[in-house]
Amino acid sequence: MSVMRRRALGFTGVAIASALVLSGCAASESDSGSASCDVVTEVTWLNTIKIEIQEQFVAAVDDYNATNTDCVKISIIEYPQGEPFFSVATPLYEAGNAPVVMTVLQELPDMADRVMDWTGTELAGLAAEGTLDKANINGKQVGIPVTAEAFGLLYNKAVLDEAGVDPTAIKTRSDLEAAFKAVEATGRKAVHFSGLWWSLGAHFTNIYHTTAAADQAGRLAILDELTAGSKDLLADPAFVNWLDTFDLLKKYSIDSATIADTDYDQGVENLATGEVGFWFMGNWAEPNLLQTTPDGSFGVMPVPTSNDAASYGNDGISVGVPFYIIIDEEQSTQEERDGAIAFITWLLTTPEGQQHWSGPIEENGMNFIPVYDGFTVQPTTYMSQDIAKYIAAGKSLAWINSYYPTGLQDVYGAAAQKYYDGKSNRAAFAKELAAAWAE
Question: What do you get for the CA distance between the two ends of the chain, in Å?
C-alpha cells in the first residue's frame, strides 16, 4: 500500500478514539506465554500494517502472545480502513493514549519529534542498505523498514500465454496496446484499471514523477518547481506521455473497474479468474490473488509511458519501502518500548517470526519481501521472483510518492478520479495536480 489506504472521512476530535476497537483484553498474567511473569507489559500497535494481510498479522500477534517469555502482550488498535493516519493518531495523543507502535511513510517528518531513535539498535543494523534513508530525519533514525514492495502492471500468466503475449517483450506504449488487443482477441477484457483514489493518487502518479527525469536530483527538482508554482505540466513531454498511457488504460479497461472503494476486491477477482490479463496494482495484492486462485501464476511488469523503448522507466517497475515502524517515546514507558522491540525482534530474527513475516499466505504468512540480513525465509511466489529479477537488473524505479507531503496523494487521487470518470479534461487535471502543491 502499498500506502495505508487513506480516505478522508468525517471523523474528528477525540470522538474517534471511542470508535477504535482495542483487540484482546486487559493485560494479565495469562496473556503472556510465560507463566512466571509477575507483571505483563501491554504494548499497543496501531492497526495491522496492511489490510491485505490483516488476518496473518493477527495470527503472528496471537502466536507471540501465546509463546513469548518476554512478559509482553501485544494489543492491536483497529481503525476504519482508509482513515487518514493523523485523524486517528492525533485524538489518541490528545487523550494521553498514544499507540506504542505505528507504521507510517509520508508522516515520518511530522512524527520525528515524538518517536524513539533507532540509531545503533540491532534491528537498524540489520536493515538492507538504502532502506533506512527515508526515515532518517536530521540524523535521527525515526523508523525502520517493514518490507520492499513493487507496483506496475500485474498480469495473469495463463491469460497472457493463451494470448501469445510475452510481458518481457513489451517495451513501448504501442507494444502494450498490441498486448491488450491480443488479450481481447481471446474473448477477455484486456485490463482492470482501478479508479481507487489511493492507487491513482499515490501509485499511478508516481509513474509520471519517477520517469520525469533519469536521475533522482532531476525528479526532486520537479517537486521543487511544483512547490514554487513554476512547473507547467502540459509542457513536459513526460507528463503528456503519462496522460497518453492513462488514456490507453482507460480505453481498454473492463467496465467493472470503478472509483468505488470495493474496486480492489473486484480487481482481485477479475485478474485471478482470468476475466482480464492485466491490472495496475502492486505485489501486496498477490496474497489475495492466490487465495482466489491458489494454482495461479501472477507476475508484474513495467508500465511503458513512451513509444521510445529507450526512454527512462519504460523497462522498470516502482520498488520502495511502503511503511516504516516507529515507536512512540512521548507517552510510552521504557518497559513498553522494550516490549515493542522484543516483539519486532521476534518477527524479524527468529525462525517462527520470520515464517509469519515472509512465509506464504497459504501458511498464514504475510509474504513480505525481507529487507533485513539473516532471513532464512524468503518468498517463493512467481511475482516475488519477477520483482527480484528487476531489482537484480537495476530496473527498479524510485517511489517519488514517498516524498509527497502528507495529504497530497489524497488531493492527487481526487483529481485523478475526476479525469478517470471523464469529469475533467487534461488542462483541468494538470491544473488540479499543480495546485495541490500550493495547498
Answer: 24
Instruction: Identify the residue whose cell numbers are 516475488.
Output: 384
> What is the dihedral sign for C-alpha 11, 13, 17, 18?
negative
Domains of the chain, earliest start first: 15-148+321-375 (3.40.190.10), 149-320+388-436 (3.40.190.10)
Chain centre to alpha carbon of residue 240: 26
Cα separations in angstroms, 69 against 16, 29, 73: 34, 11, 10
Contacts of 123 (CB under 8 A, 6+ apart): 144, 341, 344, 345, 348, 349, 372
Residue with cell string 524505479: 397
Please list the rounded mean pLDDT of every run of 10 residues in the chain (439 residues): 30 32 35 72 95 93 97 94 88 97 95 98 94 94 96 98 98 98 98 97 97 95 97 98 98 97 96 98 93 96 97 95 96 98 98 96 90 91 90 90 92 98 98 93
Q: Which residues pair with 204 in a beta bridge?
A: none
Closest listed residue to residue 378, CA positions, set 389, 365, 390 = 365
d(CA 378, CA 372): 11
Q: What is the three-class DSSP state of 262?
A: coil
3-state secondary structure of 200: helix
| Residue 427 burial class via C-beta count within 10 angstroms: exposed 0-12, middle 13-18, buried 19 and up | exposed
H-helix segments, 149-196: 157-163, 173-184
Cα dihedral 422/423/424/429 (nearest 10): -90
* Distance in angstroms (rounded) separating the CA atoms of residues 86 and 82: 12
Name the residue among 308, 280, 309 with its Cα closest to residue 206.
280
Q: Which amino acid is at 305?
A: T
- String of DSSP letters for 256-280: T--SSTTHHHHHHHHHHTTSEEEEE
The whole-model pTM stands at 0.81
Please give the Cα distance from 123 to 108 (Å, whole number).
Answer: 18
Cell of 407: 495529504
How many residues are recorded in the chain? 439
Q: Round to whole Å and give the CA distance between 437 and 412.
A: 10
Return the SS3 of 71.
coil
d(CA 277, CA 298): 10
> Cα(362)–Cα(235) distance, rounded to whole angstroms?
48
